[in-house]
Design a protein that fits this description.
heteropentamer; A alpha/beta (338); B alpha+beta (526); C mainly alpha (281); D alpha/beta (331); E mainly alpha (316); B: 526 residues; alpha+beta; four-stranded mixed beta sheet; 23 strands; 24% strand; C: 281 residues; MetI-like fold; 10 helices
């Protein structure tokens, strides 16, 4: 659907090669209500027909408000659960249909960091046990040099040797995220899903974690799928960004261009709503998005954003817009651009 | 605003409905004055559980028998040996004991005023003999397979023709109580017919009310042919827990109670009630299971019996010999031709060990089964276990509930246990014991087989000469005492406590199972 | 239990003096049960001449209706009641945890099937099940442990299932699945250790329930078979003598009450010590 | 503009099993009529405790150990309970952070709104219902006559926060304390709520004390800003001064660690190293000392507040040094 | 709401059917023979065989179950083997006493449990709270049988205030007399649930008082009593309904035991006799009746919860 266009912008993205990760027409539907005899009557389309690709060494940002399906997309990509339909190609091989045994080698290559520092570390295990878990699973380390490897990782993420025997509840939020990062790079992965890794941290601590992620990407050639609702931080860290609304991918573009020339009305409204930390630059109150998110269950046809879109036309109500290329590397799903 | 009110109403409704449900579900009786305590008084008797039925031809449990004894009058009754004619005027037996004629009194009437005639007696016997009605008393009137014939001579006389001579026929007649033909005629299944719920009887009291789990109320019947009851009414009150029953006796909620041995001292101390003690007609025995090889050896049986001191055994089971007399014979004291002097086995540990050594049965292991719900049996089993241990016999106790024990005991080739307790009360006719001791008898718990023994039983059953019968039954008791396959332990005693305010106890004649022969004689002193 | 939970538990015990008392009581009873053979009299010998004596120097708790020394019987009774309590608890906790964890973790048809059968099991009047099960098995400690164990595991498996469902959503379990750990390892390395506190609390409360159930089992005549005795059967036999010798009922009742009270207090202390707020911000 | 509220040396501590946590260690500031002032700070800085202490709404384990908070000359902290109840909701209203738990789930929105109205304005049941519907319309809730009888779970996060604003403003308070009102909301809904809040407060002349950790929100909404850290005020001034000429190293560090929206160049973020202080045994001197790049031994003792510009004060020896240099230059 | 009720009722039928199969199999496989309880030595073996045949015990098991089920569907629970009366009549006679006892003890434990729970919660960590908490611990650890014995010893034997036998004094017919008889059984049956309710109400009131919506109410000048009765109480009382449903099994088992201690004329004593004499139709009748009571109780509690809690109502 989206061709492999030339990629400028940061870093060493090679052109023309097959992307590290290719998601084609991904869909994930949850059953909400069953009739008396087990036939599903109501379905929640959390993710509906989403396609994008990420090249090796690139950071692809995925933004959108709560309930837009960004986390579900991320978790589908690393096969945390089975998807309803679509393909997830890792270096060209589709992981969608695989069972746990077939997935094993890919699990080593694909790792994840989660949002809540207080829930992503097992409170009953000390740091040494936490970080050495992936080492145990993917072998190659005897007991003694496993301890050295863990200490090396700890120092790599800015923690000290004596932290190894402490328990998660003895650390601050920022330190816990560092432990999560150390754990995720322990087994030498290529791809890391960052599912809102900094949303629960204070601003000053966020910067520490973001810098470390960027350094690790440089050093280990990692590829990130970075999910967040804080648009300013996503712009800082991502090469390309995808904007999601009600389970649909409404716009994909290079991060700079998305902020300077947003194509989709929703992206435009989203950017307008960001409070700029500079009193001299006043927010455009006229283009404020009105109305509420519609209920995700009603299966109305047409563009999901039309009820709140200032440019909505009759056509938006009848025909659902499809992601179309409007500029090199810039795609938008809106009838305005036909 | 409607929704808010609905919410509050829902909570209030929940609470009110729960409370109303609790109170209204009580059938609270406020009008009826309960027992008609006129000047004759209302006697409240405690019974252990609800009566199983008010229809006498199905009454087997003691509660039903006691209540039916007040509601219905028998043809004749026998108390400690002497005969008393009730509904019947006379009973004449033919020379060869094969034909009996019974003559009813004149002018007998049911509680509802209908005349009681020979037709009712005929109808009663036909119902009992009818296989489809499966009454509990049918077997007593079928002599080795052939039922007796009953025919009506005239309005007041009935003739019984027996297929073979039977001395025990009279004792069988005593158990039968006529039921009203005009009530039950045409009922397909007497056992389940709902006519049983409001029984029409012939006895000194008539049925008034039954409240399940609580009480049965009967009141004086003016239609009774002989002396009317002095009591206004009797309430048979259900009391499961015997210590709360003893308490109720003390605070006057109960007037008569069957007392357990361990409560005797407490009731005596309280002083509210007179205590009556009389032989219960029951025999408690210890049975050796002859299907087990080890038990076949006589020395082993004798060794075991010598290891037990009968006095102490009774003390353990019935808390003192005052409540249960040591028993010598397998016949109960009120049975005809019972013998007192029989071989006994005094307590002698060394003799017991010697006998065991002689029989090569050192280190013997015995499985002893007993009825788990009976306190006397449990305590005696414990005592027995400890005593036999002293002579080197290992006893494993097996407590069983009624249904399981009964099934095992009646199984002809039962080998689940080596010994157990037994108990029975067969009444004054010795021939009734035949069912327990004949080699192939259904209830021969010990499965003891002996030709000679059987012959004596058969001869005695048909022997018409009294002292010949006495001599035969003497030999039977002698042999059983020597063989000791069934070791008699004690003759039980019934203890009844009666509120001091009630009198006429001697005239009412205390009787096992039904407490008193004639409740009508009891009365409340002023 | 790892170091962190242990230090928490110790600090909780020090502050809550009620928990300390509970531990002391249980300690005394366990010691007494173990030291039962040292008792002055044999619990089962019958002395017909010393029946229903009041507590005295010679017989500290007096004697029962068969003249047996009541203090010795209480000691041996402690052995039976405590062992029944602990064994039945182990039976019900193991079954309950395994079924609860599996049903909670896998969900779907298996979960509905297990939960429906538990609903059915819970709606059968346990009273009848006790009577009927006892008719099959020959009386003895093993039977009681089995009956009580089989009747009380259902409530524990419901608690464990609910806890598993909430822990399953925690992010460290999601990470475990993402890092390719086997289901077996996830359940036994991550899920069960995190719900150990709930299991421990449910276990102590279960012991309390089991000891009480044992005494009602004896009431129905199904408990331990004579000559041995448990507190429950002693209490049941004392029913007949409540009028003149109330002490026969007093001692076993007090022993059951204090033991169950101690377990309940311990249960609450464990709950307070392992409160999830430990890992909440 | 006359002074509405003046807070002087407010101190609040929590007495936990492990010891006394000094959440607020001597905070003084004042709010003028109709002014929209913001307190910004990270978690653990004491901003939320300060707000709640104004109306003595701190949980039982906490206690106000010192200071005064005078509303039009009346010290709220020493006011007897029944008099303070008259102030709460009538003169000073509050909005909390999580709309999901601010409303009683089993009572209709209307019931909870009219209850507050009837308490402070002695209205009849029918009249209060009318007033409530009016206020729901004013805060932008569609078809309020129907929604008034609905339950909180039938409202989205944004809608519930609108109900809370209606509840707050319906009693015409002089001061509205908003404790992180939009943190739990999505950015588009946050924009709507902030716009609604500022317009309504301007029209009714209510002054607002806004507590937040988001510098963007402060810049767009507030006229004056207080920066708090470790239970103390680090810097206070007009929003323009704070953003263009921050004096305190902590404020500078904060501003540098957020991504700038300038085009093209994307420099590396400059974070503040280390983690927030532990208030169980707070340092005697400046709480920011261990994380401050320009810390010196002087910082072991707390400096006085010095005004680098009228109305722009900060708590740092550097400001003191700068002030004395300027004075020497002047002479 | 109606669809949900229909679905729950439909689920009810297979459950009751399954329970009847399980209990029928369990009962019929128990060793022992019902005929034993009324057989006397002078009954000949073939008479006994005929009686057993009349009870239908000689047919194969599945046929017996089929007959039983067919009868039940036509409303006839069969005849008690021992009392020769229809099982349904025997149960219907006894149900009011059991329901009355259970009903009163539920109401008693609700009222006392809730009030004490609230008092304890409001005076958190004050002396009265410690005393009440200690009493609640005693309440849940008290063996029912022992508590009954103490009550009998004190109030019946020593003080003679309360009768300990049955439901009525003979010859006296007044509500007061029934209540007097019911005091002790009701107390024994409800002591544990009073403690359970008290502990639950105390802990849930304390946790509700820490909720945001309570702080909001304080912030708008409301007093603690208004907050308690208008806001917190409703949130606290709702789950009590589910606890009521969950505590039904203990109450039914407890009722059976209390009835036999105090000779209370309820279903309990009928049940115990039936089991000891293996009266199969009666046991089946009582088992099905108590299972029905349990399931219906839980369903009622569940429905009640839906009616009273708006969040659940809109979901169904």
């Amino acid at each position: 659907m989206s061709d492999n266009s030339l990629l400028e912008g940061r870093g060493q993205a090679r052109t023309g090669k097959t992307p590290l990760l290719e998601v084609r027409r991904l869909a994930k539907h949850f059953t909400i209500e069953k009739s008396l005899f087990g036939r599903t009557t109501k379905v929640l389309k959390a993710v509906d027909d989403v396609s994008f690709h990420i090249h090796r060494g690139e950071t692809f940002g995925l933004v959108g408000e709560s309930g837009c399906g960004k986390s579900t997309t991320g978790r589908s990509v690393i096969r945390l659960f089975d998807i309803t339909s679509g393909e997830i190609c890792y270096e060209g091989i589709d992981l969608a249909g695989m069972n746990e045994r077939q997935l094993k080698p890919y699990r080593q290559k694909m790792q994840a960091i989660f949002q809540d520092p207080y829930s992503s570390l097992n409170p009953g295990m000390n740091v040494m046990e936490l970080i050495s878990e992936p080492l145990e699973i993917y072998g190659g380390y005897s007991r003694s040099n496993r301890r050295d490897r863990v200490i090396e990782l700890l120092e790599r993420v800015g923690l000290k040797r004596e932290h190894a025997d402490r328990y998660p509840h003895e650390f601050s939020g920022g330190q816990r995220q560092r432990i999560s990062i150390a754990r995720s790079i322990a087994s030498g992965p290529e791809f890391v899903l960052c599912d809102e890794p900094i949303s629960a941290l204070d601003v000053s601590v966020q910067a520490q974690v973001v810098n470390m992620l960027e350094d690790l990407q440089q050093e280990l050639g990692l590829t990130y799928l970075f999910i967040a609702h804080d648009l300013s931080m996503v712009r800082h860290i991502s090469n390309r960004i995808g904007v999601m609304y009600m389970g649909k991918l409404v716009e994909v573009s290079f991060s700079e261009e998305l902020y300077t020339h947003p194509a989709h009305p929703y992206t435009e409204a989203l950017l307008a709503a960001i409070p700029i930390p500079d009193p001299k630059v006043l927010m455009p109150t006229d283009r404020l998005l009105q109305g509420e998110l519609p209920s995700p269950i009603d299966a109305a046809i047409g563009c999901k954003f039309r009820s709140r879109c200032p440019y909505a036309s009759r056509r938006c109500g009848e025909e659902e817009p499809v992601l179309k290329r409007i500029a090199p590397g810039h795609y938008a799903a809106c009838h305005l651009h036909e | 605003m409607l929704r808010k009110r609905g919410l509050r109403a829902a909570i209030v409704l929940l609470l009110v409905s729960l409370f109303a449900g609790a109170c209204s579900s009580y059938p609270v009786v406020t009008t009826d004055k309960g027992g008609l305590s006129g000047e004759g008084g209302n006697l409240i008797i405690a019974i252990k559980d609800d009566p199983k039925t008010f229809n006498p031809i199905y009454a087997g449990d003691s509660m039903s028998l006691t209540i039916n004894n007040a509601l219905y009058a028998p043809l004749l009754s026998v108390n400690n040996g002497e005969k008393k004619f009730v509904l019947a005027e006379s009973l004449t037996a033919a020379k060869d004991l094969k034909k009996f004629t019974l003559k009813l009194r004149a002018g007998l009437v049911w509680h509802d005023g209908q005349p009681l005639t020979a037709d009712d007696v005929l109808f009663t016997f036909n119902s009992i003999l009818d296989e489809k009605q499966h009454s509990y008393f049918r077997s007593s009137f079928v002599l080795d397979g052939k039922p007796i014939k009953v025919n009506k001579a005239d309005e007041r006389t009935i003739e019984f023709v027996l297929p073979q001579a039977s001395a025990a026929f009279e004792s069988a007649l005593v158990q039968i109580v006529p039921i009203p033909k005009h009530i039950f005629e045409g009922e397909a299944d007497l056992e389940k017919s709902d006519k049983n719920y409001s029984p029409v009887g012939s006895g000194p009291f008539k049925f008034k009310e039954y409240r399940a789990g609580e009480y049965v109320l009967v009141e004086r019947a003016d239609t009774y042919f002989s002396e009317k009851s002095k009591l206004d009414s009797i309430t048979f009150r259900i009391a499961k827990e015997n210590n709360s029953a003893v308490l109720a006796l003390q605070n006057g909620e109960l007037n008569m109670l069957r007392v357990e041995p361990q409560d005797y001292a407490k009731v005596k101390a309280a002083g509210h009630a007179k205590l009556m003690m009389f032989p219960s007609g029951g025999v408690t025995t210890m049975v050796f299971n002859m299907n087990i090889d080890r038990m076949k050896q006589k020395e082993v049986r004798q060794a075991i019996v010598h290891a037990l001191d009968k006095q102490e055994l009774i003390q353990a089971g019935f808390s003192s010999t005052e409540f249960a007399e040591p028993a010598a014979s397998i016949f109960s004291p009120d049975t005809l031709y019972v013998k007192k002097e029989l071989p006994t086995y005094p307590y002698d540990k060394d003799k017991s060990k010697a006998l065991l050594k002689a029989a090569g049965a050192e280190g013997l292991k015995i499985r002893f089964a007993y009825f788990s719900a009976s306190t006397p049996e449990t305590n005696m089993a414990l005592y027995l276990q400890q005593k036999l241990k002293e002579v080197g016999i290992q006893v494993e106790l097996i407590p069983l509930d009624g249904a399981a024990l009964g099934k095992k005991a009646l199984n002809k080739d039962n080998t689940d246990y080596d010994m157990s307790f037994g108990g029975y009360s067969m009444g004054f006719e010795p021939d009734a014991y035949k069912v327990l001791y004949l080699s192939d008898a259904a209830y021969n718990y010990s499965h003891y087989k002996n030709e000679q023994f059987d012959q004596w039983w058969q001869q005695a059953a048909v022997e018409t000469d009294a002292n010949k019968r006495a001599q035969l039954y003497g030999q039977i008791q002698e042999l059983s005492a020597r063989e000791v396959t069934t070791y008699p332990i004690a003759y039980g005693k019934s203890i009844i406590a009666i509120d001091a305010r009630f009198a006429g106890i001697e005239e009412a004649v205390a009787k096992p199972v039904v407490m008193f022969d004639d409740f009508a004689k009891l009365y409340k002193q002023k | 239990m790892n170091r962190m939970r242990w230090t928490l538990l110790v600090s909780q015990l020090r502050t809550q003096k009620s928990a300390l008392i509970a531990l002391i009581i249980l300690g005394i009873y366990v010691l007494a049960a173990l030291a039962a053979p040292l008792a002055p009299h044999d619990p089962n010998t019958i002395h017909l001449d010393e029946r229903l004596l009041p507590p005295s120097g010679q017989h500290w708790f007096g004697t029962d209706d068969n003249g047996r020394d009541y203090f010795a019987r209480a000691l041996y009774g402690a052995r039976v009641s405590l062992s029944v309590g602990i064994l039945a608890m182990l039976v019900s906790v193991t079954i309950g945890t395994i079924i609860g964890a599996i049903s909670g973790y896998f969900g779907g048809k298996l979960d509905t099937f297990l939960m429906r059968s538990i609903d059915i099991g819970m709606s059968l009047p346990s009273f009848f099940l006790m009577l009927i099960l006892n008719a099959y098995l020959k009386p003895g400690v093993v039977t009681i442990v089995l009956i009580i164990g089989l009747l009380s595991w259902m409530s524990i498996s419901r608690i464990v299932r609910a806890e598993t469902i909430s822990v399953k959503e925690r992010e460290y379990v999601l990470y475990a699945r993402v890092s390719g750990q086997s289901t077996f390892r996830i359940i036994f390395r991550h899920i069960i250790p995190s719900i150990v506190p709930t299991i421990v609390v449910a276990a102590t409360l279960n012991i309390a329930g089991v000891i009480m159930m044992e005494s009602s089992l004896s009431f129905l005549g199904l408990g331990i078979s004579p000559p041995d005795a448990s507190w429950g059967s002693m209490l049941n036999n004392a029913k007949g003598y409540i009028g003149e010798n109330p002490t026969l009922a007093l001692f076993p009742g007090l022993l059951i009450l204090t033991t169950v009270l101690a377990f309940n207090y311990l249960g609450d202390v464990f709950r307070a010590a392992f409160e999830p707020k430990v890992n909440r911000r | 503009m006359t002074e509405l509220l003046s807070v002087d040396q407010l101190r609040t501590s929590f007495f936990t099993r492990d010891g006394e946590v000094q959440a607020v260690r001597g905070v003084s500031f004042s709010i003028k009529e109709g002014e929209l002032i913001g307190i910004v700070g990270e978690s653990g800085s004491g901003k939320s405790v300060t707000a709640k202490s104004l109306l003595r709404l701190i949980p039982p384990s906490g206690q106000i150990v010192g200071g005064q908070s005078k509303l039009r000359g009346v010290d709220l902290l020493s006011l007897p309970e029944e008099k303070l109840r008259k102030v709460r909701g009538h003169q000073v209203a509050m909005i909390f952070q999580d709309p999901m738990t601010s409303l009683n789930p089993v009572l209709t929105v209307g019931a909870q709104l009219t209850e507050v109205l009837r308490r402070h304005q002695k209205l009849s049941r029918r009249h209060a219902r009318q007033e409530a519907i009016e206020w729901l319309r004013q805060v932008g809730i569609p078809s309020p006559e129907i929604r008034i009888d609905q339950y909180p779970h039938e409202f989205s996060g944004g809608m519930r926060q609108r109900v809370m604003i209606a509840m707050a403003l319906s009693c015409k308070p002089d001061l509205l304390v908003a404790d992180e009102p939009t943190t739990a909301l999505d950015v588009t809904i946050q924009a709507q709520i902030l716009a609604l809040l500022t317009n309504l407060c301007k029209t009714t002349g209510t002054s607002v004390l806004l507590i937040t950790h988001d510098l963007g929100v402060v810049a767009q909404v507030c006229s004056r800003v207080i920066v708090m850290y470790g239970g103390l005020i680090m810097e206070e001034g007009t929003v323009e001064d704070i953003f263009s000429a921050p004096q305190h190293p902590y404020t500078k560090g904060l501003l540098r660690s957020i991504p700038r929206m300038r085009e093209g160049r994307r420099e590396r973020l400059v974070p503040i190293e280390g983690s927030p202080p532990n208030l169980l045994n707070p340092p005697s001197g400046c709480p920011f000392m261990e994380r401050c790049p320009q810390a010196s031994s002087e910082c072991l003792i707390l400096p006085p507040y010095v005004e680098s510009k009228p109305g722009h004060r900060s708590l740092c020896w550097l400001t003191v040094a700068r002030k004395s240099e300027r004075q020497e230059g002047l002479q | 709401m109606k669809k949900y009720l229909l679905r729950r009722l439909l689920q009810l039928i297979p459950m009751l059917l399954f329970i009847s199969i399980v209990s029928f199999a369990l009962i019929r496989l128990a060793p022992g023979d019902p005929v034993m309880s009324f057989v006397t030595p002078n009954m000949s073996p073939d008479d006994i065989e005929r009686i057993r045949a009349s009870m239908g015990l000689d047919q194969p098991l599945y046929l017996q179950y089929a007959y039983w089920l067919q009868n039940v569907l036509t409303g006839n629970l069969g005849y008690s083997l021992i009392n020769h009366r229809p099982v349904l009549d025997l149960i219907v006679e006894r149900i009011p006493a059991t329901l009355g006892l259970m009903g009163c003890s539920l109401v008693l434990s609700l009222i006392i449990g809730i009030t004490l729970g609230l008092v304890a919660a409001l005076n958190k960590n004050k002396p009265i709270d410690r005393v009440l908490s200690f009493l609640s611990y005693i309440g849940i650890s008290l063996p029912g049988l022992w508590f009954a014995m103490i009550l009998i010893y004190v109030f019946s034997i020593q003080l003679h205030w309360l009768p300990s036998l049955g439901m009525r004094t003979i010859g006296v017919n007044s509500v007061w007399d029934v209540i007097l008889h019911g005091v002790m059984p009701c107390l024994v049956l409800s002591i544990t649930s009073i403690a359970v309710f008290m502990r639950y109400i105390r802990s849930s009131t304390i946790s509700q008082l820490e909720e945001d919506y309570v702080n909001i109410q304080y912030a708008y000048g409301s007093t603690s009593t208004v907050i308690l009765f208008r806001h917190v109480l409703r949130n606290v009382l709702l789950p009590v309904i589910t606890i009521l449903g969950l505590s039904l099994p203990e109450i039914i088992t407890g009722a059976f035991i209390v009835e036999s201690i105090f000779s209370w004329p309820g279903m309990g004593s009928l049940g115990i006799n039936a089991v000891f004499s293996l009266d199969y139709p009666m046991i089946m009748g009582i088992t099905m009746m108590s299972s029905f009571l349990l399931i219906f109780g839980n369903l009622l509690a569940d429905m009640m919860y839906g009616v009273v809690d708006p969040r659940i109502k809109s979901m169904r």
